[in-house]
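Q: Got a minute? One more chain.
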Amino acid sequence: MSINTHFLTINGLVSSLFNLKLFFMKLDATTGSIITEERARKLITSFAIKYKDEINSSFIGSDNVQHILKQEGCVGLRIYNGYDDENKKMNLVLVGVDESGKEMLQDGIIYDELSQCPPICTIEGALLNK
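A: Always. Here it is, folded:
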């Protein structure tokens, strides 16, 4: 085997282990990772380049986030990428999730219609500066 083949095999194994870790990741109030501003900018810029005609950010008020999180048994949010056929734009959908990973749909609180950028975009302090 060549060095490149060994590298690809090891790289594939590392990638598989990482995906396996994500598959078995426990859902609780601490799920998620803090990332650097540099990493955030890279992810956001890559998305903006690949999907240049799509919404690049959305905003939801803290009262509405708390409205979901204060549901009994809610440990976090699941955020879906939706698509609004009428307006032909991506649209996020937020729903509460319990500790077993089950979405809180029965009498649960589900949000969409977030403030989207574009058209409503901040200029100063934005992670995506065009």
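A: Confidence is low (pLDDT under 50) at residues 17-22.
Q: Perfect, thanks.
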